[in-house]
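Supplementary Methods. Inverse-folding protocol.

Structures were first reduced to a discrete structure-token string of length 249. This string, shown here, constituted the complete conditioning input.
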């Protein structure tokens, strides 16, 4: 019932209306999310943290600034890419719903993901000085803050030109073009494309218990999970652009 209402709502609204609806939805919590009317779910929960983060100015978080490289693909091409992934307006609704659920679990998620990296020497190497194999802790913690912000941004699912440009920038920051530059890190200078892509699985596969934590039905949890998969694959696709021979992307 809950799902059908949400799906109907997602199907009925055109993207502009839906965006408006989602941005205007109330933030106040009247009780556990799972028991609120579904049209109040997926509101602006993720806007507030992003605004707060902007105010707190996470060092190096440059979304929307002129420091960010311009994406070589256009918004029209991004729209096309979403279609290749069967990414729909409904996915946006479920991503935004996930934002409310993940809001207070960001640190726990980061711990899981950083744990995977630090458990594997070939991944940990990207945070280490290649000479001494010591982790550059200042660098790692600066990056972790932006990683946390990424959870908010992914759930916010606001796909404008600034967002698209920032995806290219994130790709460049994993690639030798810009790795270490933002935080003056002293670590291995390039993350291999294969690790970048394969780690997408670690990101999403570990999310389900977090998405399920606030008592939503398994079906709603699965839909949020699918939306995260699609979003992660789309973002990783954008991020590997600097790794692809010119003309082949
Ligand atoms: C595919 C899943 C991944 C996600 C979601 C992800 C997310 C992010 C984000 C959001 C940033 C910060 C971008 C910014 O500056 O605002 C970042 C940077 C970084 N990521 Fe990833 N990342 C992924 C894969 C990896 C892998 C596999 C590694 C290596 C183990 C890695 C290591 C790093 C490092 C070292 C930086 C800092 C780069 C720099 O600016 O020097 N990431 N990542």
């Amino acid at each position: 019932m809950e799902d059908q209402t949400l799906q109907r709502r997602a199907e009925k609204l055109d993207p502009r209306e839906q965006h408006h609806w989602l941005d205007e939805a109330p933030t106040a919590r009247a009780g556990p999310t799972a028991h609120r009317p579904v049209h109040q779910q997926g509101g602006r929960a993720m806007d507030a943290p992003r605004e707060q983060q902007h105010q707190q100015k996470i060092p190096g978080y440059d979304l929307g600034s002129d420091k960010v490289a311009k994406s070589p693909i256009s918004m029209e091409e991004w729209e096309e890419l979403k279609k290749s992934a069967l990414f729909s307006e409904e996915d946006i609704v479920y991503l935004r719903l996930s934002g409310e659920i993940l809001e207070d679990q960001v640190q726990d998620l980061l711990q899981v993901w950083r744990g995977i990296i630090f458990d594997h020497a070939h991944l940990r190497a990207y945070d280490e000085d290649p000479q001494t194999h010591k982790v550059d802790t200042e660098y790692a913690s600066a990056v972790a803050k932006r990683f946390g912000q990424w959870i908010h941004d992914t759930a916010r699912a606001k796909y404008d030109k600034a967002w698209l440009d920032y995806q290219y920038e994130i790709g460049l920051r994993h690639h030798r073009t810009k790795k270490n530059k933002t935080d003056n890190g002293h670590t291995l200078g390039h993350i291999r494309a294969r690790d970048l892509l394969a780690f997408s699985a670690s990101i999403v596969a570990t999310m389900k218990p977090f998405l399920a934590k606030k008592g939503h039905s398994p079906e709603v949890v699965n839909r949020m999970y699918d939306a995260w998969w699609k979003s992660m694959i789309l973002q990783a696709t954008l991020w590997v652009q600097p790794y692809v021979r010119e003309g082949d992307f």
